[in-house]
Design goal:
globular; 6 strands; 2% strand; 49% helix; single chain; mainly alpha; 35 helices; two-stranded antiparallel sheet
Length: 814
């Protein structure tokens, strides 16, 4: 136990013995004392946890003391107050706080002066302290508000009414509608991440039916590839563990395919949530729901941690933090070491959520991770029974071989060197280093000699055993395998609140529970079944209509990807420190509408894209812009740069090289040699795919945490080590260099030019016009044809294609 050093004691002596000045101001409990107690004492001695029976957040408890029977505070006498003895280090056996930095001399002086002045504790001093924010808007029930009663030809559906009501409060008008071509391209890129082909452009312009276009695009597989990628950002999807070795997660790509397929099938969002949180605990668990459990295992993992106990809680923290942010929009992870400093979330809330997931285990053997079979429980049970029986037959064959091997070694008929024979006669765990090397060197030769020495009876026995194994495999074939955590025991381990988040400092036992601020607790089963059923209970609670956050969070995410910003601009933080919604009534109306319509994301798309709000143009209004430069009132459609996946896929689409192959193991895009030179193993770290395979959509690119494809990284691919609610949108020189000089764009420019020659012939004007239609979804203007024609004559068609790929218009939605 640490004690104060000499210098600290000297400083403390000066503070404690300094005479009070005539003008000294009395200590204010609310301003001076409560913040110290709340930050440094309440995590162990507050309303949720009382270590050693001591509670310091209530006056009577604080003055009574804990289990020692000695008052923690003695009014007017700081030297007799146990609290002061502990925080000053005057007691060699007990120094408080037990972890983290000691209290500063200023903090100690404030506590000493407050006690000496009589330890005045105003009755109202603690009100609103620990539970500040419980009346926050996001924790209030979701109630559908009335639609504003506004008469206007601009209103196509309730979304427009809510937005127009806000604009009319300022006497503003929404921007004019976008041009048909601009709106068409916006919808294509928004829903599929791909530009319309020239034939699709002409078909739409002949019959500009937005609703029909939206329905058609939502039915395309490209929709799931586009919107599944948004969810993968939230789920911190990558296919390797990170850290030094950055090993590949076996079959992690199946989770990616599950997400894409779920969006394409318009799986109800509440079901989507339940499968990822409790796919194995659902009554109808199957291969798909087991694959969904990959959500838990996608985060970084250290395969050789310095402190295994701490690492275990780091893994649980990844799950709790991600789950609370993704589904609830809460930063619960900030309560790991102490009660949340800003939100009404406590350390007990945090560890009660840890208890829900504490039964999950990572299938592995040391550094080697395993995937697991997926199917119905009946199929998995049958497979496990098959494998158990196969193991029995294989043990019988192994026993026969072992007996023959020993016979060979003892008989002296083995053709191995004598020292090798001697090495094999020693138990593997007892061999010297030299014997281990000999055994490894001659293992194959001994195995061959043993096989040749088998008797007729022994061979028949082994063959019979193998026939039994083959029959078992035919009767019960292997199942597909996926990458997920499992809960092998119905009784999860006990969960304790960790003092200051330290794995070695166990606090009180905590039960499985949801954050108290969220209202009534779900009934966690007392009698487990195949597993604890805690995750299924949590999933049902999260997707309950009584939950105030889930529907709000999801509709806000969908809105964000359509408009660039959410109605709440902190999409994974709906707490006190997050931003308030710009249109709270619209948010709640959408949330209730979403639940009333079967949690259908595709129906939500149709609703939003049917509004005039979505169809607005992007014209700037200087007056509105001066007062609302961030367009929070949505008086126009904001400009949005495409994500890197849509930029890369659009380039492949324009060049005609886009490979439409869906699902399956990931492809490896080409990486510049310079990016591999600094790696210790450049020949093995990245096996690039051939051009056709690498031309699949970018969502199928292999994501290695220690080796992100430079093209993706420089154009703001999200950080895969944590949940990413929103992509960064940077503007740096390396982006321009990558898009102009990078290998990928230059290759696509060559392929683009070859396509133009094939489809437009040798007429330069026809080539230019087709290039604009393919890349920008519009014909080239007369001026563009003239300027680009001169450029092609001076440079080349390939260089013109490279210029088009670098136009702002190519990288931005409109």
């Amino acid at each position: 136990m640490k004690v104060l050093g000499r210098w600290s004691y000297f400083c403390l002596y000066v503070v404690l013995t300094a005479p009070a000045g005539v003008a000294q101001q009395k200590v204010d409990f609310a301003k001076d004392v409560r913040p110290i107690l709340q930050a440094r004492c309440f995590p162990c001695h507050g309303d949720r946890v009382q270590m050693h029976g001591l509670r310091l957040d209530r006056e009577a408890d604080a003055f009574r003391g804990g289990t020692s029977g000695v008052p923690a505070i003695t009014r007017g006498n700081s030297s007799q107050s146990l609290l002061m003895r502990y925080v000053t280090g005057a007691d060699n056996k007990t120094v408080m706080p037990p972890t983290g930095p000691r209290l500063s001399t200023e903090q100690i002086a404030l506590l000493r002066d407050w006690i000496e002045e009589g330890a005045v504790w105003p009755a109202e001093a603690m009100s609103g302290g620990m539970r500040k924010g419980t009346d926050h808007w996001a924790f209030r029930p979701v109630v559908q508000p009335p639609i504003p009663n506004i008469k206007s030809d601009w209103i196509r559906n309730p979304i427009d009414a809510f937005l127009l009501a806000k604009l009319q409060e300022r006497q503003w008008k929404p921007a004019a509608a976008a041009a048909p071509r601009a709106l068409m391209r916006r919808i294509y890129l928004d829903l599929t991440g791909l530009p319309p082909t020239p034939a699709e452009q002409e078909a739409y312009l002949k019959r500009p039916d937005v609703a029909a276009l939206v329905d058609e695009l939502l039915a395309r597989p490209a929709y799931g590839e586009r919107w599944g990628r948004h969810w993968l950002d939230l789920a911190r999807y990558a296919e390797t563990n990170g850290y030094e070795r950055d090993a590949t997660k076996p079959n992690a790509w199946r989770y990616r395919d599950y997400v894409i397929d779920s969006f394409n099938r318009d799986k109800p969002f509440d079901r989507f949530v339940m499968e990822q949180l409790a796919g194995d605990e659902l009554p109808d668990a199957n291969g798909e729901t087991f694959t969904a459990l990959g959500y838990y295992r996608l985060g970084p993992w250290d395969d050789e941690p310095a402190d295994p106990k701490t690492d275990r809680f780091d893994q649980l923290d990844d799950i709790v933090s991600t789950t609370s942010q993704v589904f609830l929009g809460l930063t619960l992870g900030c309560a790991r070491c102490h009660d949340h400093k800003f939100e009404p979330l406590t350390a007990r809330d945090y560890y009660s959520m840890v208890a829900i997931f504490n039964g999950l285990e990572r299938p592995r053997d040391g550094r080697t991770e395993f995937d697991l079979p997926v199917g119905t429980w009946a199929q998995i049970d049958a497979l496990n029974e098959r494998d158990r029986r196969i193991q029995d037959w294989e043990k019988r064959s192994a026993a026969v071989r072992t007996e023959a091997r020993e016979r060979l070694l003892v008989s002296g008929s083995a053709k191995l060197p004598p020292d090798a024979v001697a090495a094999f006669r020693v138990k593997p765990q007892e061999r010297s280093e030299e014997q281990k090397k000999l055994a490894e060197k001659y293992e194959k030769q001994l195995s061959e000699e043993t096989g040749a020495s088998l008797t007729t009876v022994e061979r028949a026995s082994i063959e019979g055993n193998q026939q039994a194994v083959d029959q078992l495999r035919r009767a019960t074939p292997d199942l597909p395998r996926a990458y997920y955590l499992n809960e092998p025991k119905p009784e999860p381990p006990a969960t304790y609140l960790l003092v200051r988040g330290k794995a070695e400092q166990l606090g009180p036992l905590v039960p499985a529970a949801t954050p108290e601020v969220m209202g009534a607790q779900p009934g966690f089963p007392a009698t487990p079944a195949r597993s604890s059923l805690r995750r299924l209970t949590l999933a049902r609670w999260i997707t309950s209509r009584q939950n105030t956050l889930t529907a709000r969070v999801m509709v806000n995410r969908v809105w964000q990807h359509h408009f660039g910003e959410g109605l709440v601009r902190t999409p994974s933080d709906f707490g006190v420190m997050g931003e308030r919604p710009t249109h709270p009534e619209l948010l709640d109306w959408l949330a209730t509408w979403f639940m009333d319509n079967g949690w259908s994301v595709k129906k939500l798309h149709r609703l939003i894209l049917a509004s005039n709000a979505y169809r607005m143009g992007k014209e700037w209004n200087p007056e509105y812009g001066e007062k609302d430069p961030e367009d929070r009132m949505l008086w126009r459609m904001p400009y949005q740069r495409l994500e890197v996946e849509a930029i890369r896929d659009s380039a492949l689409s324009a060049s005609g090289e886009l490979n439409p192959q869906m699902s399956g193991p990931s492809m490896y895009p080409q990486i510049p040699a310079a990016a591999l030179e600094g790696n210790s193993d450049p020949d093995k770290i990245w096996k690039a795919s051939d051009e056709a395979e690498a031309s699949r959509r970018t969502v199928y690119a292999f994501l290695k945490r220690s080796m992100v494809v430079p093209f993706l990284e420089v154009l703001d691919l999200c950080d895969t080590s944590r949940s990413a609610a929103k992509r960064q949108n940077t503007s740096v020189a390396t982006q321009a260099l990558t898009l102009f000089n990078g290998d990928f764009i230059n290759l696509q420019a060559r392929r683009f030019a070859a396509r133009l020659r094939r489809e437009a012939g040798e007429n330069v004007e026809a080539q230019i016009d087709l290039a604009y239609r393919l890349a920008l979804a519009r014909p080239a203007t007369a001026k563009e044809v003239a300027v680009m024609g001169e450029f092609v004559q001076r440079e080349s068609l390939e260089e013109m294609c490279r210029v088009i790929y670098n136009l702002n218009e190519f990288a931005y939605v409109d």
